[in-house]
Each structure stands twice: as structure tokens, then as C-alpha cells.
């Protein structure tokens, strides 16, 4: 099968994911997964979850370009994009990935700051006199 493209998002991070037949190589921003995330084993596991659940760790090559956010949000964006790419690659993966919540875009984002407040909701200390 030819290359498949999907976009994953989380907070302000965006991941562009390309998937193709291969040997299981994962390249993120021109680096391997280990070089990109260093010693963050739990986050690496989160990135790999769609491939492990669909049993595609050794049969597809993944190329990812990430922009915005921090490394954790980018990792979750990669996870979302990878799940979407797998469904575009083979529609049967939808039934496998859906129960794990991997196709859902996590809509939680930072609330904007309001005027007259210190942060989004934090106010100045109340003074009676």
C-alpha cells in the first residue's frame, strides 16, 4: 500500500504522521523515538500504544513531524495521528483502536486569561477595607 497521511492534535501541539509498509522504523523530527524522547519510558509507551494494540510494531514505518506544545503534548499528538493513520491504512483497525479511546481528540486546552484577573480564574486578594 502507498503512504498514508494523518494529523494528530493535543493542546497546542500538532503531529503530521506518514505511514507506509516497512520494518517498524519510527522517525520523529528526523530522530529515532529513543533519541527524541530520551529516558521518558512512560511517554514512549503512550506513543507506541496504537501500534501495539493493532499488532503493527514490525510491519509499518512511521515518519512524523511535530510542531508546537511541549514534548508530552507532542507525544500525545503523535499517538492521535498514528491512530488515525492506522485507520486510514486499514479500516478494520477502527474497531480495535476505538475501545482504547485512541481515536478521540483530547479537547482539554489551557483556558484563556481574563482581564481584571491574575490568571484565567485566579483573582486578586479581597480587601474589605
Q: Main sheet, how many strands, which sense, barrel?
A: 5 strands, mixed
Number of structural domains: 1
Low-confidence stretches: none
Gyration radius, to the nearest Å? 18 Å
Structural overview:
The chain is α+β, with helices and mostly antiparallel strands and 129 residues long. It has one domain (4-100): Ribosomal Protein S5, domain 2, CATH 3.30.230.10. Helices cover 33% and strands 22% of the residues. The chain has 4 helices and 5 strands. The chain has helices at residues 33-37, 41-53, 71-89, 93-97, and strands spanning 4-10, 13-21, 26-28, 31-32, 60-67. A 5-stranded mixed β-sheet has the order 1-2-5-3-4. Helix 2 (41-53) packs parallel to helix 3 (71-89).
Compile the SSE list and pairings.
Layout: E1 4-10, E2 13-21, E3 26-28, E4 31-32, H1 33-37, H2 41-53, E5 60-67, H3 71-89, H4 93-97
Parallel strand pairs: 3-5
Antiparallel strand pairs: 1-2, 2-5, 3-4
Helix pairs in contact: 2-3
